From TrEMBL:
EC numbers: 2.7.6.3
Organism phylogeny: Bacteria, Pseudomonadati, Pseudomonadota, Betaproteobacteria, Neisseriales
Annotated source species: Chromobacterium paludis
Family according to the record: Belongs to the HPPK family.
Lineage top rank: taxon: Bacteria
Residue ranges of domain 7,8-dihydro-6-hydroxymethylpterin-pyrophosphokinase in the record: 88-99
Pfam families with a match to the protein in the record: HPPK
Listed InterPro entries: Hppk, Hppk_sf
Biological processes, Gene Ontology terms: folic acid biosynthetic process; tetrahydrofolate biosynthetic process
Name of this protein: 2-amino-4-hydroxy-6-hydroxymethyldihydropteridine pyrophosphokinase
UniProt key word Glycoprotein: no
Entry keyword set: ATP-binding, Folate biosynthesis, Kinase, Nucleotide-binding, Transferase
């Protein structure tokens, strides 16, 4: 089994419920197990600003799926949730990004690992640090230090659902 981290985000159609349902869907991926996930966080949109805030989280999976197959499964979940890819950084029901796959470093047209912009994004690094504090991920760096540097970038941890 290989450890992988997946970022989740939604800003349409009850985003908190979308992210929670997507976490449950990750737990049913073939050859995979959901190990843990972060709290939910509210963040401002990046890129295209004229849209609602996002709800974000990060999940840790153990998987037997190779990176490309895992990515295909993530895209299939997005499709089931009604994801439309109208333009870059558009509002979306669900966005799933494969962030890191057990130290694999690759750059292909369909998949770059680790995710090329994860180090710059509070909505990735802060939730990742919650579940991977103290880890030094190859190609990324010290998760806790990167998250601390981005913590002031307008990210708000939501209270736990009752």
């Amino acid at each position: 089994m290989t450890l992988a981290y997946v970022a989740l985000g939604s800003n349409l159609e009850q985003p908190e419920q979308q992210v929670r349902a997507a976490l449950a869907a990750l737990g049913h991926l073939p050859g995979s197990a959901l190990l843990r996930h972060s709290s939910l966080y509210r963040t401002a949109p990046v890129g295209y600003a004229d849209q609602p805030d996002f709800i974000n989280a990060v999940a840790a999976l153990e998987t037997d799926l190779p990176p490309a197959a895992l990515l295909a499964e993530l895209f299939a979940i997005e499709q089931r949730f009604g994801r439309q890819r109208s333009f870059r950084n558009a509002p979306r029901v669900l966005d799933l990004d494969l962030l890191h796959y057990d130290g694999v470093i690759m750059s292909e047209a369909e998949l770059v690992l680790p995710h090329p912009r994860m180090r710059e994004r509070a909505f990735v690094m802060v939730p990742l640090a919650e579940i991977a504090a103290g880890q030094d991920l190859p190609g990324v760096g010290d998760v806790s230090a990167l998250a601390a540097a981005l913590a002031g970038d307008g990210i708000e941890r939501l209270p736990e659902a009752g």
